[in-house]
Amino acid sequence: MRFRWPTHRLDPGPAGPAPNRGRGDLSVNDRDEDIIVITHVDRTDTAWVEESLRTRVPSRQVRTYRGETLPSPGPGVAGIICLGGPMSAHDEQPYPFLAEEKAYLRQSVHRGIPVLGICLGSQLLAEALGGRATPGWGLEWGHIQIKLTEDGRRDPVLAGFDGEHFSFHSDTWTPPPGATLLATSDRYPQAFRFGCALGVQFHPEISPTGLQQLIDHEGTKLTAAGVDVQRMLADCLDHEAVARAHFDRLMVRWLTQ
Protein backbone atom coordinates (compact mmCIF):
# COMPACT_ATOMS: atom_id res chain seq x y z
CA MET A 1 0.00 0.00 0.00
CA ARG A 2 1.34 3.42 -0.95
CA PHE A 3 2.01 5.86 1.86
CA ARG A 4 1.52 9.49 0.86
CA TRP A 5 1.16 12.87 2.41
CA PRO A 6 -2.45 13.40 3.43
CA THR A 7 -4.32 15.14 0.64
CA HIS A 8 -6.12 18.42 1.13
CA ARG A 9 -8.32 20.81 -0.77
CA LEU A 10 -6.48 23.33 -2.91
CA ASP A 11 -8.85 26.01 -1.62
CA PRO A 12 -7.74 25.60 2.00
CA GLY A 13 -9.67 28.51 3.47
CA PRO A 14 -8.43 30.33 6.55
CA ALA A 15 -7.16 27.17 8.23
CA GLY A 16 -4.68 26.48 5.41
CA PRO A 17 -3.55 23.08 4.16
CA ALA A 18 -3.59 20.03 6.34
CA PRO A 19 -0.44 19.71 8.48
CA ASN A 20 2.36 17.49 7.25
CA ARG A 21 2.35 14.11 8.90
CA GLY A 22 5.18 12.48 6.99
CA ARG A 23 5.06 10.29 3.92
CA GLY A 24 7.60 7.57 4.55
CA ASP A 25 11.08 7.26 3.06
CA LEU A 26 11.10 7.65 -0.73
CA SER A 27 14.68 6.43 -0.82
CA VAL A 28 13.45 3.03 0.40
CA ASN A 29 11.65 2.25 -2.83
CA ASP A 30 10.94 -1.38 -3.62
CA ARG A 31 8.07 -0.47 -5.95
CA ASP A 32 8.19 0.47 -9.61
CA GLU A 33 8.13 4.20 -8.88
CA ASP A 34 10.26 7.05 -10.16
CA ILE A 35 11.08 10.58 -9.19
CA ILE A 36 10.01 12.62 -12.22
CA VAL A 37 12.48 15.42 -13.07
CA ILE A 38 10.89 18.07 -15.31
CA THR A 39 13.29 20.17 -17.39
CA HIS A 40 12.64 23.11 -19.72
CA VAL A 41 15.75 23.49 -21.92
CA ASP A 42 18.50 21.16 -23.11
CA ARG A 43 21.16 22.97 -21.10
CA THR A 44 19.39 22.46 -17.76
CA ASP A 45 21.94 21.63 -15.07
CA THR A 46 20.78 18.25 -13.74
CA ALA A 47 24.16 16.88 -12.63
CA TRP A 48 23.74 17.24 -8.87
CA VAL A 49 20.08 16.21 -9.02
CA GLU A 50 20.97 13.02 -10.86
CA GLU A 51 23.91 12.25 -8.57
CA SER A 52 21.81 12.75 -5.44
CA LEU A 53 19.01 10.53 -6.71
CA ARG A 54 21.06 7.83 -8.43
CA THR A 55 21.97 5.80 -5.35
CA ARG A 56 18.71 6.44 -3.52
CA VAL A 57 15.70 6.18 -5.80
CA PRO A 58 14.96 5.61 -9.51
CA SER A 59 14.37 8.77 -11.51
CA ARG A 60 13.68 9.83 -15.05
CA GLN A 61 13.76 13.14 -16.85
CA VAL A 62 10.75 14.44 -18.77
CA ARG A 63 11.48 17.15 -21.37
CA THR A 64 8.09 18.77 -21.77
CA TYR A 65 9.55 21.37 -24.15
CA ARG A 66 10.32 18.51 -26.56
CA GLY A 67 6.79 17.20 -26.35
CA GLU A 68 7.56 14.37 -23.95
CA THR A 69 4.51 13.23 -22.01
CA LEU A 70 4.27 13.52 -18.25
CA PRO A 71 3.21 10.26 -16.58
CA SER A 72 -0.14 10.09 -14.86
CA PRO A 73 0.21 11.51 -11.32
CA GLY A 74 -0.50 8.33 -9.43
CA PRO A 75 1.06 4.89 -8.97
CA GLY A 76 4.48 4.88 -10.59
CA VAL A 77 5.32 8.43 -9.51
CA ALA A 78 7.13 8.70 -6.17
CA GLY A 79 7.76 12.44 -6.38
CA ILE A 80 8.31 15.33 -8.79
CA ILE A 81 11.18 17.80 -9.15
CA CYS A 82 10.41 20.73 -11.46
CA LEU A 83 13.55 22.65 -12.41
CA GLY A 84 14.30 26.09 -13.85
CA GLY A 85 14.28 27.60 -17.31
CA PRO A 86 14.66 30.89 -19.20
CA MET A 87 10.95 31.50 -19.77
CA SER A 88 8.41 33.07 -17.41
CA ALA A 89 5.74 31.00 -15.71
CA HIS A 90 3.01 32.98 -17.49
CA ASP A 91 4.51 32.52 -21.00
CA GLU A 92 1.89 29.92 -21.89
CA GLN A 93 1.27 31.18 -25.42
CA PRO A 94 4.81 30.67 -26.73
CA TYR A 95 5.34 27.70 -24.40
CA PRO A 96 2.01 25.82 -24.15
CA PHE A 97 3.61 23.00 -22.17
CA LEU A 98 3.72 25.35 -19.16
CA ALA A 99 -0.07 25.20 -18.81
CA GLU A 100 0.15 21.41 -18.89
CA GLU A 101 2.81 21.47 -16.19
CA LYS A 102 0.76 23.71 -13.90
CA ALA A 103 -2.23 21.38 -14.18
CA TYR A 104 0.05 18.40 -13.56
CA LEU A 105 1.63 19.94 -10.47
CA ARG A 106 -1.78 20.87 -9.09
CA GLN A 107 -3.12 17.35 -9.60
CA SER A 108 0.00 15.84 -8.06
CA VAL A 109 -0.20 17.95 -4.90
CA HIS A 110 -3.93 17.23 -4.65
CA ARG A 111 -3.09 13.51 -4.73
CA GLY A 112 -0.40 13.84 -2.08
CA ILE A 113 2.62 13.35 -4.36
CA PRO A 114 5.65 15.27 -3.03
CA VAL A 115 6.73 18.12 -5.32
CA LEU A 116 9.91 20.20 -5.26
CA GLY A 117 9.92 23.28 -7.51
CA ILE A 118 13.16 25.19 -8.09
CA CYS A 119 13.32 28.71 -9.61
CA LEU A 120 10.90 28.56 -12.59
CA GLY A 121 9.61 25.35 -11.02
CA SER A 122 8.69 27.25 -7.85
CA GLN A 123 6.89 29.90 -9.92
CA LEU A 124 4.91 27.26 -11.80
CA LEU A 125 4.10 25.56 -8.50
CA ALA A 126 2.91 28.83 -6.97
CA GLU A 127 0.58 29.49 -9.89
CA ALA A 128 -0.65 25.90 -9.91
CA LEU A 129 -1.75 26.26 -6.29
CA GLY A 130 -3.42 29.66 -6.58
CA GLY A 131 -0.50 32.07 -6.15
CA ARG A 132 0.91 34.39 -8.80
CA ALA A 133 4.18 34.56 -10.68
CA THR A 134 5.03 38.08 -11.84
CA PRO A 135 7.97 40.09 -13.14
CA GLY A 136 10.14 41.19 -10.25
CA TRP A 137 11.89 44.49 -9.62
CA GLY A 138 15.32 43.62 -10.90
CA LEU A 139 17.66 40.73 -11.56
CA GLU A 140 18.90 38.88 -8.48
CA TRP A 141 22.10 37.01 -9.29
CA GLY A 142 25.08 35.35 -7.64
CA HIS A 143 25.37 34.16 -4.07
CA ILE A 144 22.84 35.92 -1.88
CA GLN A 145 21.91 35.71 1.78
CA ILE A 146 18.91 33.46 2.40
CA LYS A 147 17.07 34.16 5.66
CA LEU A 148 14.69 31.57 7.07
CA THR A 149 11.45 32.59 8.71
CA GLU A 150 10.37 31.05 12.01
CA ASP A 151 8.42 28.46 10.02
CA GLY A 152 11.46 27.89 7.81
CA ARG A 153 13.62 27.14 10.83
CA ARG A 154 11.14 24.40 11.76
CA ASP A 155 10.72 23.02 8.24
CA PRO A 156 11.83 19.38 7.87
CA VAL A 157 13.73 20.16 4.65
CA LEU A 158 14.99 23.75 4.91
CA ALA A 159 15.81 23.98 8.62
CA GLY A 160 19.44 25.12 8.94
CA PHE A 161 19.66 26.50 5.40
CA ASP A 162 20.25 30.11 6.44
CA GLY A 163 23.27 31.48 4.62
CA GLU A 164 24.56 32.12 1.11
CA HIS A 165 23.01 30.29 -1.83
CA PHE A 166 23.16 30.86 -5.57
CA SER A 167 20.31 32.79 -7.16
CA PHE A 168 19.57 33.83 -10.72
CA HIS A 169 16.13 35.19 -11.57
CA SER A 170 14.12 38.33 -12.27
CA ASP A 171 10.59 36.94 -11.88
CA THR A 172 9.06 36.27 -8.49
CA TRP A 173 5.91 34.79 -6.95
CA THR A 174 3.22 35.48 -4.42
CA PRO A 175 2.73 32.41 -2.20
CA PRO A 176 -0.48 30.46 -2.78
CA PRO A 177 -3.33 31.03 -0.32
CA GLY A 178 -2.74 28.79 2.68
CA ALA A 179 0.97 28.35 1.95
CA THR A 180 3.69 28.98 4.53
CA LEU A 181 6.55 31.36 3.69
CA LEU A 182 9.81 29.67 4.66
CA ALA A 183 12.59 31.98 3.46
CA THR A 184 13.35 35.41 2.01
CA SER A 185 16.27 37.42 0.67
CA ASP A 186 16.67 41.19 0.90
CA ARG A 187 14.63 41.55 -2.30
CA TYR A 188 12.38 38.54 -2.85
CA PRO A 189 10.48 35.70 -1.19
CA GLN A 190 12.62 32.58 -1.55
CA ALA A 191 10.74 29.49 -0.36
CA PHE A 192 7.24 28.33 0.54
CA ARG A 193 5.53 25.13 1.60
CA PHE A 194 2.03 23.97 0.78
CA GLY A 195 1.55 20.56 2.37
CA CYS A 196 3.62 18.12 0.30
CA ALA A 197 4.79 20.88 -2.07
CA LEU A 198 8.02 22.86 -1.54
CA GLY A 199 8.90 25.81 -3.77
CA VAL A 200 12.43 27.26 -3.72
CA GLN A 201 13.27 30.39 -5.74
CA PHE A 202 17.07 30.19 -5.34
CA HIS A 203 19.22 27.53 -7.04
CA PRO A 204 20.56 24.96 -4.54
CA GLU A 205 21.25 22.58 -7.46
CA ILE A 206 23.56 24.78 -9.56
CA SER A 207 27.05 23.45 -10.31
CA PRO A 208 29.99 25.40 -11.76
CA THR A 209 29.67 23.35 -14.94
CA GLY A 210 26.02 24.23 -15.27
CA LEU A 211 26.72 27.90 -14.62
CA GLN A 212 29.47 27.88 -17.25
CA GLN A 213 26.95 26.49 -19.75
CA LEU A 214 24.59 29.35 -18.90
CA ILE A 215 27.38 31.88 -19.38
CA ASP A 216 28.43 30.29 -22.69
CA HIS A 217 24.86 30.53 -23.96
CA GLU A 218 23.74 33.85 -22.48
CA GLY A 219 26.99 35.64 -21.58
CA THR A 220 26.51 38.65 -23.86
CA LYS A 221 22.98 39.26 -22.57
CA LEU A 222 24.11 38.82 -18.98
CA THR A 223 26.94 41.31 -19.35
CA ALA A 224 24.57 43.82 -20.97
CA ALA A 225 22.24 43.38 -17.98
CA GLY A 226 25.05 44.31 -15.60
CA VAL A 227 26.05 40.83 -14.48
CA ASP A 228 29.74 40.32 -13.74
CA VAL A 229 29.86 36.82 -15.19
CA GLN A 230 33.46 36.12 -14.20
CA ARG A 231 32.82 37.11 -10.60
CA MET A 232 29.64 35.04 -10.58
CA LEU A 233 31.50 31.97 -11.85
CA ALA A 234 34.41 32.50 -9.44
CA ASP A 235 31.99 32.71 -6.51
CA CYS A 236 30.27 29.54 -7.67
CA LEU A 237 33.61 27.72 -7.77
CA ASP A 238 34.51 29.05 -4.31
CA HIS A 239 31.19 27.82 -2.89
CA GLU A 240 31.13 24.50 -4.78
CA ALA A 241 32.03 22.10 -1.95
CA VAL A 242 29.66 23.68 0.57
CA ALA A 243 26.87 24.10 -1.98
CA ARG A 244 27.18 20.47 -3.10
CA ALA A 245 26.94 19.26 0.50
CA HIS A 246 23.96 21.55 1.16
CA PHE A 247 22.13 20.26 -1.89
CA ASP A 248 22.76 16.63 -1.03
CA ARG A 249 21.43 17.28 2.47
CA LEU A 250 18.37 18.99 1.01
CA MET A 251 17.69 16.00 -1.23
CA VAL A 252 18.13 13.48 1.57
CA ARG A 253 15.69 15.44 3.71
CA TRP A 254 13.19 15.83 0.89
CA LEU A 255 13.31 12.11 0.18
CA THR A 256 13.08 11.01 3.82
CA GLN A 257 11.09 13.71 5.66
Number of domains: 1
- Gyration radius, in Å: 17 Å
Classified by CATH, the class is: Alpha Beta
Instruction: Name the average pLDDT.
Output: 89
Query: Which regions have little confidence, pLDDT < 50, spanning 5+ residues?
Result: 1-23
* Alpha carbon gap, first and last residue: 19 Å
| β-strand number | 9
Second-tier CATH architecture: 3-Layer(aba) Sandwich
**Helix fraction by DSSP (H/I, runs of at least 4):** 25-40%
Structural class: alpha/beta
Order of helices and strands: EHEEHEHEHEEEEHHH
Count of alpha and pi helical runs: 7
What is the third-level CATH name, the topology?
Rossmann fold
- How do the strands line up in the largest sheet? 2-1-3-4-9-8-7-5-6
The name of the CATH superfamily reads: Class I glutamine amidotransferase (GATase) domain
The oligomerization state is single chain
Shape verdict = globular
